[in-house]
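Data deposition worksheet. Section B asks for the primary sequence of the deposited chain exactly as it was used as input, without tags or linkers unless they were present during the calculation. Section C holds the resulting structure in token form. Section D is free text for depositor observations; keep each observation to a single sentence. Incomplete worksheets are returned to the depositor.
Section A, Depositor: J.P.
Section B:
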Amino acid sequence: MTRRRASRMLRGAALAAAALLLPACAGLPTSGDVTVGLVLGESTQDVDFLPVASGPIAGAGPQEIVEGFLEAGITTSDNWGTAREFLAPPLQRVWRPGEGVSVDAGTDTRVLTSSVPVDAVDDAETAEVQVLLDLVASVDESGAYSEAPGASNVMFTLERREDGEWRITKAPDGIVIDEQRFPNVYEGYALQYFDSGWARLVPDVRWFPRRQSAATTVTQALIGGSPSAWLDPAVQSAFPADVQLAQDAVPITDQVAEVALTRPASGLDQVTLSRMRTQLQATLRAAGVAVSQVRFTVDGRTVDAGVVELIDDPPEAGTLILRDGAFGRIVGDEISPIPGISEQILAIDQPIASIDVAIDDSTAAVQLADGHVYLVGDGNRDELDARPGLIEPTLDPFGYTWTVPTGDPDALQATGGDVVAHAVANAWPNASQISDMRVSPDGARVAAVITVGQQRWVVVAAVIRDAAGLPVELGDLKQLTQLSAVALGLSWVGTERLAVLVDPQSPQVLNQMVGGPGASEAAPGDAFSIAGARASAGVRVLGVGGQLFAHAGSAWREVATGVSVLATRTGE
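Section C:
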């Protein structure tokens, strides 16, 4: 019997089976530090489930082989061993799945076109299959996530083996995963870096395949890598470039992470070692790894390392409102005033548009209805900016008030307690408008909603400061997501997420990760203002009629009425 005839005999049943089995996946229970669906920083001991794809089906044609190969991207075990089964041996050895991820809209949106018609497959020895993808995002080799909507063409070359089976001989590096299953295959981990003053930690979210040891994954990424390019100007790592992991594993015993380092670590000073330990411990805990401490070793010997003190944020401020001649924190139906601030705010005899309270309650940036911005506190009320068209101001943790006109985004300035305005260079290049702006809790990043051309974007940039903490320049913009409607408000939720209130006609709250995907939920019907918090449960929304809303599960609950201003707090 000839090879081609044998192939024809197999194809009838095999192709029918391929249609059913190639897209199939199941759940494989594994153990690990991180559980599917958790918010960054949470952990659990529950069993994790990773999707599993099928290998090649006997008798499958070129197009079915490529379909199966793409589907196998969801199975990361054994360095994508299932996907390699669809490749010819020479390609198996050089294909690099870790090069990156193309996240597309869904398997049903992929359009495959083969150079060989179905009725001619049995007479062909080679074939080319082109795949048209509807991309939504990408993840690069370092794990950095970027929104990247648009069409993408990917080409595959296949050859028939001696046994009659088709295998891929040319394929691009990296894998393809649909956006619905991407969070089931990859996990976002917030690597921690120091700010420019070694006083605060700044998260840098990266995405890596879900594995049994999150500890090893994030430790390798932190010690062997570098901050994301857009964030790099504002942060630094305590790990010197010549210090690396001495082994590809980070065992944890009795909640102690044993981290073996290369020999240069033995010659480091105590300050550097303490910063290294502090940085890595914070990264492991942010990844959901249950560790009480990190222990460094070199050649099997323990290296003594302490920890450094970081600036701690004060307790949660609660909800700050202005209502019926009272300003402060609302608890139940009572408003507790803020000493040194509330009295001065209530003394203002003009309508107030916004209030942003400093992290230590010492001052507040107040914008009046006429747009002018003032700094109140310590018995003073100083005008900071009277330029026309100013958007709501934002205070940073260093005591600077940021202001900018909506129609002149590059005219950004920061004003300190001395009431001296300083221009911030490289602010929102190419933007024609800016509607919202908030500095992050650590002061190393600033988020904004800008208009470039006819497109509205939520963006973030690094804040470059001088030795005294003065913001002097912004780094390159990182585009997070494009908005289809007008933004009504922007706030930080914790350190890794933003809440964006959009669309006056049908209000939505977009929960956008900085360095990851976002998700929307309906907001109260007349919402027009939003205030962030350290967790999503603390987000508050204000309606045009003065109704204050809080989260109640997946819905919104009215918690107060008669509110004229929903105030914000630095970094939220």
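Section D:
DSSP finds eight helices and 41 strands in the chain.
The two ends are 73 Å apart (CA to CA).
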